[in-house]
Design a protein that fits this description.
It is elongated, with a radius of gyration of 29 Å. The longest helix has 20 residues. Helix 2 crosses helix 3, helix 17 packs across helix 23 and helix 21 packs across helix 23. The chain has 549 residues and is of the alpha/beta class. Among the domains are: 227 residues, Rossmann fold (3-Layer(aba) Sandwich), CATH 3.40.50; 157 residues, no CATH class.
Length: 549
């Protein structure tokens, strides 16, 4: 998805950027306002957090994609004079509180409950030393596929290497202040046992949720009971970690984070994170709160449940850029993240890409492809939309790309897999998507008498057109047929030559009877691509009852 590390600094772009209302620019302006005097730190730090309790899902990727867009907008607004870094931080020292539903052998992980994720054996096999290492690798693999410029960080490594030691010692000093923030947010029973410090048991290796008997700020130690044995540990060196809410604030203070976005489910805790960051001597970063993704049932997607789409599932049916577009659009609106959103996302991406060269700079900076490709969108000619390819597969029962290319090359002479590799890539996606999601749900229906008459007249109208007629002429021929049939007259619309317009029910009927689907692309475009004689043969099969049978 990422385009180039170079920044376009032409005057027209810079002027438009300063006025742009696109959300990445709005967020970037907050970071600039953070340093009103222009006295930026050596590196402005953008961070994303990741809990590797399950396999990475698209929501996790969304944070990185969106943060990258804000980072690029910041670089443009500052004319690339300020060094920036994106840190992808994995909380892999967190204890495994429950076993994910989507691991191969759940029983095998039961002995490792509450152990740090980097101490839990990897249930997926391979050469990864732990469950946490495996899931971190899955995240990095996907981020690398998109070409993101980021630095990966492991909580386990940072804690053990002493990267947080100074702030952890300060947390011991400020223990009472942190407790004053946390205790009012907890129930009475939880208040009695709560501690922001979570020791790693020297006996069992588990992350312990136990009350503190003593916190020695001067010595930098905590004392607690570990299975009946009073134990004292230093808060440094990876012997202890913080509860997840204090950990947010501690990390921001320790690393000097300037920007971090998170989902709406974190919004109620934002003030807690910020207050703890300030208590520990830091400055809370700028925030952007996005809405959550939902599965096909309207439920929040979850790494542990494995509902919704996985990263690999989306990429099996669509190019990566379509996912980048889905992340850019309406980030503060809850959106369904399931297979049926893919075709629209694909076609919208190429539509935005096609519009980009014709736009002025103000429009370009509001175009998602500018943000997705770091200001350098590729020039791609796509003569056939993805939705049309899907319907071509459906009508032709194509099982391989050669069949599809036979129709495409006839419809658009000179267009070949070699000349249009992007279209060739989409033909593979279309066949796979059709086989897995469209074909199982196809349901042809018989036409009633009015519909049979309409289809017969449509076939006659098509037969009167010469071979190679373009889609617009075919569409008009179909409209002329429908206008003369009372059922399909829409008196709320007016035809160009006068009289009633045509109801969408006419084209819905065509797709239900001929394709076995509820909807489809513009009929004229479909018939032009599929072929006039082939479309007439399809009508004949429907009228003979062969399709519904």
């Amino acid at each position: 998805m990422a385009g180039s590390n170079s920044i376009d600094l032409n005057p027209q772009l810079l002027a438009a950027a300063g006025e742009s209302k696109a959300w990445p620019f709005e967020e970037a302006k907050k970071i600039i306002a953070r340093y009103k005097d222009g006295n930026f730190p050596e590196t402005v730090l953008f961070e994303t957090g990741y809990g590797p309790s399950g396999l990475p899902h698209i929501g996790t990727f969304g944070e990185v994609a969106r943060t990258t867009m804000v980072r690029h907008a910041f670089r443009v607004l500052t004319q690339d004079k300020v060094k920036t870094k994106l840190l992808c931080f994995s909380d892999d020292m967190d204890g495994m509180r429950k076993i994910p539903d989507n691991v191969p052998d759940r029983a095998a992980l039961e002995p490792y409950l509450h152990m740090p994720l980097t101490a839990v054996p990897n249930p997926f096999g391979g050469n990864y030393e732990s469950f946490g290492h495996h899931n971190n690798a899955m995240l990095r693999r996907f981020l690398d596929t998109f070409g993101f410029d980021y630095e990966f960080a492991s909580a386990t490594e940072y804690y053990k290497a002493g990267r947080f030691d100074a702030v952890l010692l300060r947390a011991a000093e400020k223990y009472d202040d942190i407790m004053k923030v946390m205790l009012p947010t907890l129930g009475e029973e939880r208040q009695a046992t709560y501690s922001p410090f979570l020791p790693i048991s020297p006996k069992s290796g588990r992350v312990l949720y136990v009350p503190m008997k003593h916190v020695d700020a001067k010595a930098g130690t905590i004392t607690f009971d570990d299975d009946g044995t009073e134990t004292t540990l230093p808060v440094t060196g990876g012997k202890v970690k913080l509860q997840w809410k204090p950990d947010f604030g501690m990390r921001w203070a320790a690393l000097g984070v300037d920007f971090e976005m998170f989902g709406k489910d974190h919004q109620t805790n934002q003030t807690i994170y910020d207050r703890i960051c300030v208590i520990l001597g830091g400055r809370a970063p700028e925030h952007f709160v996005y809405e959550l993704f939902l599965d096909e049932n309207g439920q929040k997607i979850s790494k542990s449940k494995g509902n919704g789409l996985t990263i690999d599932e989306w990429l099996a049916y669509a190019p990566t850029e379509s996912l980048g577009l889905y992340m850019f659009q309406r980030p503060r609106q809850a959106k369904k993240l399931y297979f049926d959103v893919i075709p629209k996302a694909v076609d919208e991406y190429y539509s935005f890409l096609s519009a980009y060269p014709r736009q002025d700079w103000k429009e370009r900076l509001g175009n998602p492809v500018w943000h997705m490709h770091d200001g350098h969108p590729p020039a791609i000619d796509l003569p056939v939309p993805f939705a049309l390819l899907l319907n071509l597969v459906s009508a032709s029962n194509a099982q391989n790309k050669d069949v599809l290319w036979g129709f495409i090359s006839r419809h658009a002479p000179g267009v070949t897999p070699a000349s249009h590799p992007e279209l060739d890539r989409l033909t593979s996606f279309a066949i796979r998507y059709f086989d897995d999601f469209v074909k199982p749900t196809k349901a042809f229906r018989e036409a009633d008498e009015v519909e049979r008459d309409a289809l017969a007249k449509l076939s006659d109208a098509l037969g009167a057109l010469p071979a190679g007629t373009d889609g617009a002429v075919i569409q008009n021929a179909a409209l002329n047929v429908a206008r003369k049939i009372e059922r399909y007259q829409d008196h709320s619309k007016q035809a160009p030559e006068g009289g009633p317009g045509v109801s969408v029910a006419f084209f819905q009927m065509i797709y239900q009877v001929l394709i076995g689907q509820e909807r489809g692309p513009r009929f004229g475009s479909f018939a032009a691509l599929y072929g006039i004689e082939e479309t007439r043969a399809l009508i004949a099969e429907a009228l003979a009852g062969k399709l519904a049978a």
